[in-house]
Amino acid sequence: HNSRRPPGLEGDARDERIIPMKYTESDAFFAFSNIMIQLRDGFLRELDKESNGIQGRIKQFSEIMKAVEPHAHRTIEGNQVDHQFYSLRWFMLLLCQEFDMSMAIRLWDTLLADPKRFTFTAFTSCALVSYVRDDIIDGDFACCMENLQRAADRVKSIPQLLNKANELCNAYNTYETGVLHEDSTGIYLPLLDEHI
Q1: Cα 134–chain centre separation
Q2: What's the predicted TM-score (pTM) here?
Q3: How many angstroms separate the Cα of 11 from the Cα of each of 4, 23, 41, 59, 106?
Q4: What are phi and psi of 108, to 5 degrees?
Q5: DSSP 53
Q6: What distance lies between CA 169 and its chain's CA centroid?
Q7: What is the pLDDT of residue 117?
Q8: In degrees, to the nearest 5, what angle opens at C-alpha 66 toward C-alphas 65 and 69?
Q9: SS3 for 189?
């Protein structure tokens, strides 16, 4: 019987540390179900054009980009690159296809903490565009598409991406309100001074 116990666990201590593990699968399913309930509008064709639908989310992203990355936005629009061509999977999959598992987990940690549930995804997507802005400014349709679809390849660390997203969020809030916030930390996610 001792061979079944993890090392260092004796008697009742074993039970306290192992029992919670038996609920891990059900807890994970519960969390996943809640996330999917909140994301479902993006997967329903009849809701595509609603603000919570996929086209609504991409439209919001485009409007934010127009305010905080105007040169990139102008280039993308000028080359008639539909934002859905490169950002659809960003919003449908919350950017998890763009990064390896450890980076995606760190990214999701912030996206799931978003008090406005997934609005910060638009700022994070704008931050991705920032990584390739200089490469697409003078480019054509093909150049824009190639760089935008591979923007995540330029990200060296998720905290760096999130800090850029927070900067863009601050810039957008300043643009929307006309008030310059002296605090250099994120006003969108006040609990996260800097993403580490």
Answers
A1: 22
A2: 0.73
A3: 12, 21, 49, 58, 36
A4: -65, -30
A5: S
A6: 13
A7: 72
A8: 60
A9: coil
Amino acid 78 reads G
Count CB neighbours of 76 within 10 A. 26
d(CA 69, CA 172): 10
Query: Residues 6 or more apart from 133 whose CB is under 8 A from it?
Result: 69, 71, 72
| Residue carrying structure tokens 């760096």 | 160
Using CA of residue 145, residue 150, residue 152, residue 153, what is the dihedral sign? Answer: negative
Instruction: Return the pLDDT at 24.
Output: 76
Highest mean pLDDT among 39-43, 100-104, 145-149: 145-149
The owner of tokens 């190639």 is: 146
**Within 10 A of 148 (CB to CB), how many other CB atoms are there?**
24
| Predicted confidence (pLDDT) at residue 131 exceeds the cutoff of 70 | yes
Joined together, the tokens standing for residue 99 give: 């990064």
In terms of Cβ atoms closer than 10 Å to its own Cβ (0-12, 13-18, 19+), residue 81 is: buried
The whole-number average pLDDT for the span 161-174 is 93
CA gap 18, 32 in Å, rounded = 23
Closest CA to 119 of 51, 40, 37, 44: 51
